[in-house]
Amino acid sequence: MRRTRKQYDDSALEEPLINLTPLIDVVFVVLITFMLIAPVLNLDHVELAASGERQKESSATNEQLLLILVKADNTIWFQGVPLSYKQLAEKLKLEKKRHPGQIPQVIQDYRAQFGTYQSVKNTLESCGFDQMDVVLKPN
């Protein structure tokens, strides 16, 4: 009796190889693109909830900016004057009547609490503003 050696075909057992190099290259290019563009963005635009009286006016140009500053100690400054939420609401309602198309800018210190930012945002919405600009890196 003669023994025969079985030969296995190794190619039938191997999985086909998938080259992932092009995929990894594309992911790295996209990552580098985001890393280069992110520091350039200084301004974030936030859409606010609809107010009771919604009017679309042209953007204010050459007018005084509505600048709201939230400091690290959570104090709120409007046009360089510290105000409470009630005083801020009164001033913002007056400014909304004077300059209905103007978009307020909010500069918040990174050490301030998020709740202060949220309260300022809610105050802007209640005063009838549709938009606000969040300045991330003020000059």
Question: Please, could you describe this protein's structure?
Answer:
This protein is an alpha/beta fold. The chain has a domain at 42-135: Nucleotidyltransferase, domain 5 (2-Layer Sandwich). It is built from four helices and six strands. The protein has helices at residues 10-13, 21-37, 85-98, 114-126; strands at 43-47, 67-70, 76-78, 81-83, 105-108, 131-135. Strands 1-6-5-2-3-4 form a six-stranded mixed beta sheet. Helix 3 (85-98) crosses helix 4 (114-126). It starts with 9 loop residues before the first helix and ends with a strand. Residues 52-62 have low confidence and may be disordered.
Task: Spell out the key features of this protein.
6-stranded mixed β-sheet, 4 helices, Nucleotidyltransferase, domain 5, alpha/beta, rod-shaped, 17% strand, 139 residues, 35% helix
List the helices and strands and how they pair.
Blueprint (H helix, E strand, L loop, with lengths): L9 H4 L7 H17 L5 E5 L19 E4 L5 E3 L2 E3 L1 H14 L6 E4 L5 H13 L4 E5 L4
Parallel strand pairs: 2-5, 5-6
Antiparallel strand pairs: 1-6, 2-3, 3-4
Helix pairs in contact: 3-4
